[in-house]
Structures are given as structure tokens and as C-alpha cells.
Amino acid sequence: MRLPARPFVTVSVSLVLATAWVALYTLLRPVQPGLPPTDAGVVLRDYQPVTAERLKNPEADDWLMIRRTYDGWGHSPLAQINTDNVARLQPGGADRQRWRHVRLDAQH
């Protein structure tokens, strides 16, 4: 029994078009800016191993997990930003993805 050629052609054309789309997307996608190069010596000098104790009791300013602690609460014990000054937060940094705290007592 001979199979009709039409389904084979349809599948072949679909595969060619999908491959071409992936190749074109790969060539034309916007380049994401990377992180600036870091000196490995500095990184290794300041490196602190992640231990079970650090995961159980993380430092206030060093979130080792996405929600900081195992309970998943995500509370930060830091107090620089509070209900009185949160409205003064402004986007900052070269990548505009970080926030900076505007101090009213700072001299510019």
C-alpha cells in the first residue's frame, strides 16, 4: 500500500518553516546587556560558602533564597526604607532595574 505524498509534503514544509523561524529569531533577537566583567580574585576573596546554618539564619542584607528564609515570608529586617520614606524611592542604577533611596539630608 502506498501512502499519499501530500501529508509528507505538509510535514516537511512545516519543519522547514519552523527551522527557518527559529534561525531568524536567533539572529534578530535583541541582545541582552550582560553584567560587567568581574575580577575573579575579588569575588573569590570575599566569597562566603553557603552553609545550612546560613540558610537557616541568613544575614539581614544577604538573601540566599528567593523569599529569604525557609518559611517563605519574604520579610526584610532592614529599616532604611519604611512607610514614611517609601514614596521617595526612584529608579536608579545604569540598568534602571534597581531602586535607590533618596536621602533628604544628603548634600548633592
Describe the structure.
- The chain has 108 residues and is mainly α.
- The chain has a domain at 47-75.
- Helices cover 32% and strands 6% of the residues.
- It has helices at 5-28, 40-45, 52-56, and strands at residues 90-92, 98-100.
- The chain has a two-stranded antiparallel ribbon.
Note the main attributes of this structure.
single chain, 108 residues, mainly alpha, two-stranded antiparallel ribbon, 3 helices, 2 strands, 32% helix
In spatial order, strands of the major sheet run: 1-2
Beta-strand residue percentage:
5-15%
Q: How would you state the average pLDDT, rounded?
A: 75
What is the succession of H and E elements?
HHHEE
| Class by alpha and beta content | mainly alpha
Give the helix proportion (percent range).
Answer: 25-40%
Let me know the number of strands. 2
Cα end-to-end separation? 85 Å
Number of helices: 3
Note the main sheet: 2 strands, antiparallel
Low-confidence stretches: none
Shape: elongated
Radius of gyration: 26 Å
